[in-house]
Specification:
Distance between the termini: 21 Å
Largest sheet: 5 strands, parallel
Shape: globular
Radius of gyration: 20 Å
Order of helices and strands: EHEHEHHEHHHEHHHHHHHHHHH
Strand order of the largest sheet: 3-2-1-4-5
């Protein structure tokens, strides 16, 4: 019923892991892996001490009887990792680098502990499903579809994940980017796939409703961006990263950023540092990044949903209560 291709290629005797953030996507994959009787499944959560999704990840691990690893994420160490991450990821896109910093921490831990060979993750579904909360601003199905198609022209995070994983000798698998699943899902009309009742990924959730694959509580929980879920609301790790970046950026150089970088000109000192670092590693290769991610519908300029003007309104919607009322 999930539409996911269950024949994921696993090396005989290979050690299998799952990036279990605590959200719907990874929980669905975890349950499918459990039902496929994958032996010795290991799950991994990464976040700061204050990460609010930690408990959800632990509950998910218990529900599938996995060997769970809680990896502590240090924003200051992540700052030190920026040059290596940019070298591996070959990008200066802010959204991609933030995710890559988290993934780098996970893969480094896995490599040090010889934990697994194959790592499953839920990346990709939110791209094809139009799950970012700004899609709820679409006035009609056509506007939703047009925005989705424009966003899908950008490279999906899979490329960055593959590069980071490969450096550590880890194969990363993306079940939701399986061609059979994506073609089947996108075959449904935009009217079916558009957010409804203030609920993103509504169509996907309804497809799983009344199934044994996922609990109602998890099925109808708010979507949280992986970068956002790695820390608490009031102690957002990206803020620490941004403060560190600003200390290492010369103000005069930053003021001349439009002259220095006419293509994809950085808006913040964080973006400026990423761009400077990229140019040092890959001189005159700015066109390797055709465009950097900017949220649609004018909700903000930072890739983090927590910073968008519609985020408080999004949190006010009780998904489960809304669905029960509609039924």
């Amino acid at each position: 019923s999930s539409g996911i291709n269950a024949e994921w290629p696993l090396r005989p005797g290979g050690k299998v892991g799952l990036l279990l953030s605590g959200g719907l996507n990874s929980r669905v994959i975890g349950n499918v892996l459990r039902d496929s009787q994958v032996k010795g499944l290991k799950t991994f959560f990464v976040g700061t001490k204050s990460a609010h999704e930690r408990k959800s990840s632990e509950n998910g691990a218990k529900s599938i009887s996995s060997i769970h690893h809680d990896i502590m994420f240090d924003p200051k160490q992540a700052f030190e990792d920026i040059p290596k991450v940019i070298e591996l990821a070959e990008t200066y896109d802010t959204s991609s680098i933030r995710k890559a910093l988290l993934l780098f921490t996970v893969c480094k831990y896995i490599h040090q502990h010889n934990a697994i060979d194959v790592l499953f993750c839920g990346e990709g579904l939110d791209d094809i499903a139009g799950s970012q909360i700004y899609y709820k601003q679409a006035k009609c199905a056509q506007e939703f579809q047009t925005t989705l198609e424009n966003n899908l022209k950008r490279p999906i995070g899979r490329e960055v994940y593959d590069k980071i994983g490969s450096w550590f000798g880890i194969r990363i698998v993306f079940p939701f980017l399986d061609p059979l699943f994506t073609s089947h899902y996108l075959n449904f009309s935009a009217e079916d796939r558009i957010p409804r009742f203030g609920i993103e990924k509504y169509f996907f959730r309804v497809c799983l409703d009344h199934s044994d694959l996922i609990t109602e509580e998890v099925l109808w929980k708010h979507r949280e961006d992986w970068v956002d879920s790695a820390s608490s609301y009031d102690r957002f790790w990206v803020k620490t990263l941004q403060r560190l970046c600003s200390k290492f950026v010369d103000n005069e150089e930053f003021q001349k950023r439009d002259e220095t970088y006419s293509h994809n000109s950085p808006l913040t000192t964080e973006e400026f540092l990423y761009r400077q670092t990229f140019e040092k590693i890959f001189p005159d290769q700015q066109s390797l990044v055709p465009a950097i991610f900017r949220p649609s519908f004018g909700v903000g300029t930072d890739p983090s949903p927590r910073t968008w003007n519609i985020y408080p309104q999004h949190l006010c919607v009780d998904f489960l209560a809304t669905v029960r009322m509609m039924i």
